[in-house]
Write a structure and sequence with these properties.
- The chain has 122 residues and is an alpha+beta fold.
- It contains five helices and five strands, in the order H-H-E-H-H-H-E-E-E-E.
- The protein has a five-stranded antiparallel β-sheet with strand order 1-5-2-3-4.
- A hairpin with a 2-residue loop joins strand 3 and strand 4.
- The chain is globular.
- The protein starts with a helix and ends with a strand.
Length: 122
């Protein structure tokens, strides 16, 4: 919902620090933690992906990653939101967002094979 009323630059402030994929915090926050946190991350990923088709707005990879990120943050579980791009014949690039937390691939998987990771929110 935030993306409908606010510019992404304002929403981004709520997502964490914007870093390169090589930043050590990326691996640390995406790493496996407790079994309970992993189970919560899997459940949130399932809930977000299951609800996406029924939203009154287009809920694709970015919206799903943002929703899961917020839900995990409320539960005290660190996550990493990844952003990538790949060349496309029809337009300049294809962009994609995906989320990892507690050793779980939460949303945005599978990642297209030619997708290059550009940056992350930690």
């Amino acid at each position: 919902m935030l993306l409908l009323v606010l510019p992404f630059s304002r929403v981004a402030r709520r997502l964490g620090d914007f870093v390169t994929p090589a930043d050590p915090r990326v691996a640390q926050r995406a790493a496996a933690t407790t079994p309970d946190q992993a189970a919560t991350a899997r459940t949130i990923g399932w809930a977000v992906r299951s609800a996406a088709p029924f939203m009154p707005f287009r809920s694709v990879c970015l919206q799903q990653a943002m929703a899961a990120h917020a839900m995990l943050r409320r539960r005290g579980i660190a996550s990493v939101m990844h952003f990538g791009a790949s060349p496309n014949d029809k337009r300049a690039i294809d962009a994609h967002a995906w989320l990892d937390a507690a050793g779980v691939k939460v949303t945005g998987y599978p990642i297209p094979r030619d997708m290059g990771e550009i940056a992350c929110f930690v």
